[in-house]
Amino acid sequence: MPPAKKPAVEVFTPDYWEEACKHLAKKDRVMKRLIPRFGDACLESRGDAFTTLARSIVGQQISVKAAQSVWDRFAKLPRKMAPASVLKLKVDDMRAAGLSVRKIEYLVDLALHFDSGAVHVDRWKDMSDEMIIEELVAIRGIGRWTAEMFLIFHLMRPNVLPLDDLGLINGISQNYFSGDPVSRSDAREVAVAWAPYCSVATWYIWRSLDPLPVAY
Question: In the predicted model, what is the mean pLDDT of residues 187-214?
Fold first, then answer.
């Protein structure tokens, strides 16, 4: 018998993308030039919240290739990638998958927060970006940058400006300041024209540095 096919991961795209592109092209000369370069490509969200955050922890401080390799081994351990299943895993098995002691602690804390209801996934749609960030950074191993990436790539919030992101700062430097150094306040000033679609503008700035879209 041929092996069973894995179910395809459902992919979501933002319903505001076209409107955002029109707004940005009208308000910002750089966006007017950048947006047409990437055709119909846009932000995509896939997977569930717990899996997305677990992947972000596994991938910290290692290359994309190494992260994928460790994730593939780790993902085979639980019967299902869910908080309760992760909490049942043995530390030795997780170590054998290539996870450090610290990352195991982070994954366990993530699973505990989801399993206990300390993160209010069902209420996120009615919560502000900052309230969600506050919940997420209470989990060990998740800082503000990871929380902002989650808001952009998983929840597809339209107006996130991740000022701690080196790619964004570098992209603003290249596109708006001829490569000169850029401060956070410079970046914030540029982004005034982007609101209420800072996430979309950020995505295009990233694309200007690396045309291959990032999947989070």
Answer: 92
* Token reading at 97: 């998958």
Cβ burial, residue 145 (10 Å; 0-12/13-18/19+) = middle
Q: What is the pLDDT of residues 184-195, one digit of tens each?
A: 999 999 999 999
Helix, strand, or coil (residue 12): strand
Asked whether 151 and 131 are in contact (CB, 8 A), the reply is no
- The candidate with the shortest Cα–Cα distance to 11, out of 71, 39, 59, 52, is 52
The whole model's pTM is what? 0.87
pLDDT value at position 61? 84
Tokens describing residue 150: 């989650």
CA trace torsion 91, 96, 101, 102 (10° rounding): -110
Which residues contact residue 206 at a Cβ distance below 8 angstroms, ignoring those fewer than 6 apart?
A: 167, 168, 171, 214
Would you give the distance in Å from CA 144 to the centre of its chain? 11
Q: pLDDT digit string (tens) for 98-137?
A: 999 999 999 999 999 999 999 999 999 999 999 999 999 9
Average pLDDT for residues 149-160, to the nearest whole number? 95
Instruction: Specify whether the CB–CB gap between 141 and 180 falls below 8 A.
Output: no
| Site of tokens 């007017």 | 32
- What the chain holds in terms of domains, given with CATH numbers, is 11-43+160-209 (1.10.1670.40), 48-153 (1.10.340.30)
- For tokens 């009615």, what's the residue? 126
